[in-house]
Write a structure and sequence with these properties.
The complex is a heterodimer of chains A (323) and B (245). Chain A is an alpha/beta fold. Chain A is built from 8 helices and 18 strands. In chain A, α3 crosses α4. With 245 residues, chain B is an alpha/beta fold. Chain B has one domain: HUPs (Rossmann fold). Chain B has a 9-stranded mixed β-sheet with strand order 9-8-7-10-6-1-4-5-11, sandwiched between helices. A two-stranded antiparallel ribbon of chain B has the order 2-3. Classes of the chains: A alpha/beta (323), B alpha/beta (245). β18 of chain A pairs parallel with β13 of chain B.
């Protein structure tokens, strides 16, 4: 028996979110007194794979197959299942990234186990049954769910479980896996980047702006602030609706849900739908000239002031801090 | 091409969620229920494809209790041709997926669309489960769909990356923003919806994999610390403390 964690690869590196999942899996393995193993799909260097050892992974099953170099949910799910069976996994832990979300349901059916998506804490055992906390209603509630299944899949919400180092010696097993014909019905034609900037779901800092900016021509200072902070840029729904900014920048309940360490909202009033997309952020800083803006109720820090004065001053202050 | 859109009957996005006194359920009193916003993109796209000259029926299905009929009627008012409701109040992903898979096996469709996630459970589990149970491909998080000669071309937008994929039909596609524009039902649509078929189907027996123990509300944010506009330097300190600068 073992705990198995799925390590997702992007740009030849194991994703940070996978290390969050690995930390969760390590704590789960400690709780159940089981070894922690991992599956990693991608032809990446041994040195990169061994980074998993820092987070308590004793053994990584690496699948290098060329036909698996790009993510496709069906073959990836089958590959994870093959390893789960090879290591006799008790539980499988996945990070709830887009690709994680895409394979979890297939894993659950293939393995015939229960799945929990968006978990934010380790499970507990109540009357011999597993119970776990997850977010629901777009972060507006925490749901406690249970199962009679003794085996589970835990999909860990991004930025909800703190990465901790638990270094161990990590060995790599070359695992042979060939996807079946049924797993290969979808073909990847092309992969491209949406923009040169950091993507919203991966950004550590997000600078977001709304109608308070008055027009698309005023986004220069937002871009400048974001670039100084290595941040991604985002916007509110009304701004995307009137095409001041592209749709893929729309953050909120019906756009992209984000969970950065710092979310800076400029000229956004903070409608409940917007908050539902950003409530998982660790620190929220709001700049708005209206002291009654509902966003201040969800903020950690607030500046009541005109964005056209506050933002340039903030840019200046950051520049002088950086020297 | 016959299209099925699996829709959710979910609280309106503006809903402030409150719990029942025992914390076991969401207090549904006074809550307006809507079609899941992502499923609405899928309905719009299905109608666009039909209007664009691909003949066939646009059907909608919801796994839910009698109250979901109102939501299905809204989908009919927007333009769907027929509606089905599988009669159960269960919220377990596996149970719901099993119901939809059984229905799809008995009533084959060329294209099956869902939202990228429901806005109540946010699990994104049902599409992949149905795909696995029915044995069809699935592409999640799509912001574009075109259908040609029994194949769908989709754009999957994830983590700032765009993947252009080709998938043979029948297949399951899940929609996110960009997929289409929402439509508002007009008076003629609302009138027509009253007489369009809405069939209630009993749920199949299958054991649920999970159960809901209860809910908690997230702990309220401690009050906001206000910084005077002339002291923006303090924000620099906050960013530096968090290792950003």
């Amino acid at each position: 028996m073992a705990i198995l964690v799925f390590l997702e690869v992007k740009d030849n590196k194991i994703r940070k979110q996978s290390f969050e999942a690995a930390t969760y899996a390590y704590d789960l393995a400690q709780m159940l007194n089981m070894p922690l193993k991992a599956v990693c799909i991608g032809n990446i260097s041994g040195e990169e794979v061994q980074k998993a050892g820092r987070y308590g992974v004793e053994e990584v099953y690496q699948i290098k197959g060329q036909d698996l170099d790009k993510f496709l949910e069906s073959p990836y799910a089958s590959a994870v299942v093959a390893v789960a069976q090879a290591v006799n996994a008790q539980h499988v832990v996945v990070s709830q990234t887009f690709n994680g979300k895409s394979i979890v349901p297939r894993l659950a059916i293939k393995l015939g186990v229960a799945s929990f998506s968006g978990v934010i804490a380790l499970p507990t055992i109540a009357n011999g049954e597993i119970q776990v906390k997850r977010t629901a209603y777009s972060g507006k509630t925490i749901q406690i769910v249970g199962t009679k299944s003794t085996k589970c899949i835990f999909s860990v919400k991004n930025n909800a479980y703190k990465i901790t180092e638990n270094p161990v010696t990590c060995s790599i097993v070359d695992f042979e896996f060939k996807p079946s014909a049924e797993d290969r019905t979808v073909t990847v034609k092309e992969v491209s980047k949406l923009s040169d900037k950091v993507s919203l779901t991966e950004a550590d800092v997000i600078v977001s702006a709304g109608r308070g900016l008055k027009g698309p021509e005023n986004w220069g200072m937002i871009e400048e602030l974001a670039s100084l902070l290595g941040a991604a840029t985002a916007c509110s729904k009304p701004v995307a609706d009137v095409h001041w900014r592209p749709h893929h920048e729309h953050v909120g309940q019906t756009g992209i849900q984000v969970a950065p360490n710092v979310y800076i909202a400029i000229g956004i009033s903070g409608a409940i739908q917007h908050l539902a997309g950003v409530n998982a952020s660790k620190t929220i800083i709001v700049i708005n000239k209206d002291p009654e803006a509902p966003f201040f109720k969800a903020a950690d820090y607030g500046v009541v002031g005109d964005a056209f004065e506050v933002v340039p001053n903030l840019i200046q202050a950051i520049k002088s801090y950086k020297g | 091409m016959n299209t099925l859109i699996c829709i959710g009957h979910v609280p309106d996005t503006t809903t402030k969620i409150q719990l029942t006194p025992d914390g076991k359920q969401i207090n549904k009193e006074g809550v307006t229920f809507i079609i899941g916003p992502y499923e609405e993109y899928a309905i719009s796209r299905a109608l666009e494809l039909k209007e664009g000259g691909i003949p066939g029926k646009v059907s909608v299905i919801c796994v839910g209790g009698p109250k979901a009929d109102e939501t299905l009627r809204k989908a009919l008012a927007i333009g769907a041709d027929e509606a089905f409701r599988i009669d159960t109040e269960s919220t377990d992903s596996f149970f719901i997926a099993h119901q939809l898979a059984s229905f799809i096996k008995e009533n084959p469709f060329d294209l099956i669309m869902m939202g990228k996630e429901s806005i109540d459970r946010n699990a994104s589990e049902v599409p992949g489960m149905v795909a696995e149970l029915v044995g069809v491909p699935c592409v999640t998080f799509c912001s574009f769909l075109e259908v040609n000669n029994g194949k769908a071309t989709v754009r999957r937008e994830v983590d700032g990356q765009v993947e252009l994929l080709e998938v043979p039909l029948p297949a399951i596609i899940t929609a996110q923003k960009g997929f289409a524009e929402w439509r508002i039902a007009n008076m003629r649509g609302i009138m027509a919806a009253r007489t369009k078929p809405l069939k209630v189907i009993p749920a199949k027996e299958v054991e649920e994999k999970t159960y809901v123990v209860g809910y908690e509300l997230p702990s309220a944010k401690k009050s906001c610390t206000f910084i005077q506009p002339e002291n923006v330097g303090q924000i620099v300190n906050i960013l530096a403390e968090r290792g950003i600068l």
